[in-house]
Amino acid sequence: MKFDFDAATEVTHHDGMLWTAQLDPGWSTIGGAPNGGYLMAVALAAAGQAVVGQRLLTATAHYLRPGTTGPATLEVEQVKHGRLTSTVGVALSQDGTERVRVLATYGDHEALNGPAELSLEPPRIPDPAECLAPSAELALRLDAHLALRFDYRVPAASRWVGGDGPGQARIDGWIRFSDGRDSDLAALPLIVDAFPPALGELLGPMHVPTLELTVHPRQSPSPGWIQARIESRQLAGGLVEEDAYLWDAKGRLVAMSRQLGLRRSTPITDGAERAMNPLVDQIVRAVDATAVIVEAIPADMWDRPTPCRDWDVRTLLNHVVGGLRIFTAELEGVDAGADHEADWLGADPQQAYARAAAADRAAWQRPGALDTTVRISLGALPGQLAAVIHLTEILTHGADLAVAAGREDLVDQRQCEDLLRLMRDMGGVDAYRLPGVFDAEVVAPADAPAHRRLLAYLGRQH
User: Fold this and answer.
1) Distance in angstroms (rounded) separating the CA atoms of residues 150 and 460
2) Total structural domains in the chain?
C-alpha cells in the first residue's frame, strides 16, 4: 500500500517526453485549488525521469493559472544534460491550458556532496510534545484539505493556535506527514509550502496565492519531525516575499525556499484565530502523545503485562487501535469493517497505530464532528460526550502503555492533570465503575505524578 503523497504524485509515461497525472483533491489549499508545492512535486516527479542518477538541486515554479483537481499532462523538455548538472523544464497543463511552468536543475550527488563549511543552525523552539496542534476546522471550511495531510506543532504563542503571535510575520514549528510517511527529497518542495502564510502571524489569517516558488533541497532528511521557520520581511504593493527553512530531526538544514505571493486585500476573519475547538485539540494532542509512547515500545516488550488486568502490551495497543478505527468510522458514517477486539495490528503494530491515529485526527477535525451521534459499546452518544470518552481512552491507555514499557517520562503530565480535573468536574466516573470499564478508585500518594493519580482514580492497581 502506497503512502498518500506517493500515490498523489504518481505520474504515467506516454509517448516521448509526455507524462500524465491525476491531481488529488486531498492536497488542496483555500478554495479547493491544488497547493502550489504539491503541483511542483508532481511536475518534478516527471522531470526526474529525464535525469536518472542525479538529484534535485534547485527548482523554480511559475504559477500561470490556478490548477484544478483531476487529469493533468506534463510535457518534459531536457534543456541541458551534463555530467555534473542537468536542467529540465516541465509544463503542467489541464484542459489544454498551461497552469505551471517548472525549471529544475539536477546534479551528480557524489560530486556535489560534502561537509557543510557554512551552515544555518535551527532556532531554539519548544519540542513537538511541548507545542500545540492547530485545529484543521477553519482550513476544511475553506476547502484547504492539505491541513489533514500533515501533523503540525507550533508554540503556544502562535496566532494559529489562539496565541498573541510573535509580533512579526514568522512561523516557527514542526511538521510531518500524518500517515507516518518519512520526509524525503521528493517531499521537500511540498513541505516548504505546506504552512499557512507567515504574514498571518502579524496581520491575521489571509489568503496569499503563490506567483513564483524556488526551492533548494540540500540533503535528504533523517526520519522524524521536520523543524520549520517560515518568515516574510517585505510587503509592498500587494506583493510579499516568504522564505522557508527546514531542518531535520538531527538539526541539519535540508531545504531552503523563497516564494513571491500576492496578498489578497481581505483577511480571513471567520473566527479564524479562535477556530480551534478545545476538546478536539485535546484529542489530537492525546493521540500524538500516545504516538510518542507507542514508537518507544521495544520489540521485546509486546508480551509484557500492563496495568490493564489480563492484557499484555500488544493486546492493549490492539484495543487502542481498534477504538481509533471504530470512532473514525462512526464519525465518517461508514462501517469499521471489524469488531473492537479483532486483530488491528498485523505485522507492524507501531505503523498500525500511526495510520489509525492519522485517520482519527482527520475525522475529529472535520466540521461538525462534535455534532455527530457516535454509536459504541456504551450506546448511542452525542458527539461531545463521545469525544470525552475517546479522550479518556487514548490518554489513559497511553499512560498504561508507558508504565508497561518503562517510559513514564514520555507521558503528557499536564494533559493527564487536565483530564483528571475534567472527570471530577463532571461528577466523577462512579456510574462507569463496572468490570471491564473502571474499577474502584485506588488511593495514590498526593505527590504522585499526574498520570499515576489518573490511573489510580480509574482503578489501576499498579
Assistant:
1) 35
2) 3
How long a stretch of residues is the chain? 462
Please give the model's pTM, rounded to 2 decimal places.
Answer: 0.65
Residues of the chain whose pLDDT is less than 70? 1, 111-112, 264-277, 426, 428-439, 461-462
Picking from 338, 399, 403, 336, the residue whose alpha carbon sits closest to that of residue 363 is 336
Separation of CA 432 from chain center:
34
pLDDT of residue 109: 74
Name every residue whose Cβ is closer than 8 Å to that of residue 34 and which is 6 or more positions away in sequence: 23, 24, 27, 28, 67, 68, 69
Measured between alpha carbons, how far is 44 from 461 in angstroms, rounded to an integer? 56
Compute the C-alpha angle 368/151/281, nearest 5°.
Answer: 45
CA separation for the pair 225, 127 (Å, rounded): 10
Quote the CA–CA distance of 410 and 428 in Å, as a whole number. 26
Co-location of 444 and 349 in the same domain: yes
pLDDT for residue 17: 94
Residues 6+ apart with CB under 8 A from 29: 35, 36, 144, 146
Cβ burial of 184 (10 Å; 0-12, 13-18, 19+) is: middle
The reply to whether 142 and 169 lie within a common domain is: yes
For residue 232, report the phi and psi dihedrals to the nearest 5 degrees: -125, 140
Residue 462 lies in a domain: no
Q: Could you tell me which of 21, 8, 84 has the C-alpha nearest to residue 47? A: 21
Domain boundary residue, one of 45, 73, 105: 105
75 φ/ψ angles, rounded to the nearest 5 degrees = -95, 120
Segments forming the whole domain that contains residue 30: 1-105
Residue 263 sits in the same domain as residue 292: no
Angle at CA of residue 114, ends 109 and 116, nearest 5°: 130
Bridge partners for 11 per DSSP: 21
Domain boundary among 229, 250, 273: 273
Q: Is 129 found in the same domain as 47?
A: no
Residue 216 and residue 335 in one domain: no
Residue 114: its pLDDT value, please? Answer: 73
Task: Please give the Cα distance from 388 to 326 (Å, whole number).
Answer: 15
